[in-house]
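Margin note: ligand = magnesium ion.
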Amino acid sequence: MKITGFELGKLRIPLKMPFKTALRTVDYMEDVVIVLQTDTGHKGFGSAPATAVITGETHGSIIEAIRTIILPAIKNEDIQNLNHVVDLIQGSLYKNFSAKAAVEIAVYDLFAQSLGAPLYKILGGGEPVLSTDLTISVDYIDKMVQDAIDAADRGFEALKIKVGKDMRVDIERVKAIYAAVSDRALIRLDANQGWTPKQTVTALRELESSGVEIEFIEQPVRGNDVEGMKYVTERVTTSVMADESSFGPREVIDLIQMRGADIINIKLMKTGGISNAIKIADIAALYDVDCMMGCMLETAIGVSAAAHVAVAKSNSITRVDLDAPSLATVNPVVGGVLFNGSEIRISDAPGLGIETISELSMLKFDRAAAS
Ligand code: MG
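Resulting structure:
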């Protein structure tokens, strides 16, 4: 099965309600979608959103990286030389992790299809059912409490509360939500780099002493402030998770060795795809550190790939934050992974199992540049 060409498209899906973090507010999700073509007629699907504030990539940069550098590097390669193809993708250009992830996802989809099995089985198997948390956007306290109650009513057993704005108000937000739903749902916090190390320690100590039990605090301080992560991790009882501080396997090794985090948030768009996500899960397992599989605000194509990895690496990926498809008004992806509220269920279809993608508008390029 040889890679013969590709098509690129865009997928734009409105959200049920605006997604608000300490960094941004958005009301739709928009992915660049890649369809890899082969000489056997099989098609591989991959996708990447643009999360400029986190990875530095835009739709324009993702499209150009895929079209002019990554795809030419793997054209005519045999899908069954998976490791070689992955090396070509990862070595094709510096950084550009989301662009690499989109292509890797499509390559792994084809590799598993070529072996006639769902991707998670090719990656080592597992129980193909996951339970995801749901994100509660940062907002007025009453609105956040109501959103949390609604989520618990819908059966979500873990809620990820976005904080990281004004620390004093954040503490009140968390206390109010905890009082409303802690008998039904685990509470996780994500400060999206919004606090200083000292503020984080103050906030967590106050929550800890007032009996509010938080499962973990995600990325309280700036991503590049690894010393700040260590400062917090040393001083609070609550587990600290690294998100923006951890991209690839090297950062994970450094963070773990310096004890800068208790838990690692793996996202395919930060790691550059599935190959590095697997490495991180294995490194974490070696050190007895847990991981969470997360995603960006992105459609079910990339999130499906993340679900396959989470199932196969469930020995170290003990938490799942793959709620993006639940935040969208519709799921345009038909086949493969079923997203039903908190439950994520993977079918037995080969590869990612994607049959069709509705709402997909294909991009046109002049032939010379794309070949
Ligand atoms: Mg996060």
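The radius of gyration is 20 Å.
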